[in-house]
Amino acid sequence: MTHAELVKSLLENQDLKYRDFHASLLPNIDKKSIIGVRVPVMRKIAKEFMDSAAKCVAGAKSAVGKSAAKTMPKDVANFLDKLPHKYFEENQVHLLAVEKIKDADECLRRIEQFLPYINNWAVCDGKSPKALLKDEARFLARIKAWLKSSKPYTVRFGVNMLMNFFLDERFDKKHLEMVAAIDENLFDDSDTGAAKSSINAARPTDRYYVQMVIAWYFATALAKQWDSAFPYVKNRKLSPWIHAKTIQKACESYRITDEQKKVLRALK
């Protein structure tokens, strides 16, 4: 499947009612860039795209030996390299394809190549590049760098990675500190020079989506790591808006007990 064929497939699966609905959830991007393709369909298209690439690699491997096994098929490489994309759905398929790359080095390279082009929350969310777990130390080091980025959606992606992969058996209290530090610095314009190169230069709508993911992260941490996360709420270590939103999201979760919700509501 070529890039042109991929876009054709997306256009053939357009749902105009869904486009209008989804556009309302993405106020910071041009509606004209949204085709209107449902997520399960995009996942299917991404899988077909990568499966066709895998067949090419398998054929090359059979023909010329093992060295071809790590070669990125030309059609896939062309799609991943052709940035920025025109459509929102191309960006979605881009990361859905990258998360299927099994080689950790190539997966990381492709993610970092693409991060600067993300301009909305939906492309950030719901991605699971499991290949990066092959080197957890390097993965965490890159997450730390992403959290310090001046680009809001790179920051959001980094928080998502901590939330998706490092709140269970890989959890460390230091991860809470890392996310809380974003909150502490988010609107700190005390150093005018630093502010120009920091996340503070982002549009208010984009900063909002960083705030939201911080609250989402802490609400999830309360569900999974209560003893470590609760002091951030109890001692009001988060900014007022994120503090309130964290409590709201936690109280909406079925993973938080009724007793815990009672305690949290008393801290609003």
What do these coordinates show?
The protein is mostly helical. It has 2 domains: 1-100, no CATH class; 131-268. Helix content is 65%, strand content 0%. The chain is built from 15 helices and no strands. It has helices at 3-12, 16-24, 39-64, 74-81, 88-98, 104-114, 121-124, 136-147, 152-165, 173-185, 192-196, 204-224, 226-234, 240-251, 258-265. Helix 8 (136-147) packs antiparallel against helix 9. The radius of gyration is 20 Å and the shape is globular. Mean pLDDT is 89; it is low at 56-69 and 191-196.
The major beta sheet can be summarized as: none
Q: Report the structural category.
A: mainly alpha
| C-alpha geometry | globular
Instruction: Tell me the total number of β-strands.
Output: 0
- Beta-strand content bin: under 5%
List the uncertain runs.
56-69, 191-196
Query: Number of helical runs?
Result: 15
Mean pLDDT: 89
Number of domains: 2
Short précis:
By secondary structure, this protein is mainly α.
Q: What are the main properties of this structure?
A:
268 residues; mainly alpha; 2 domains; 0% strand
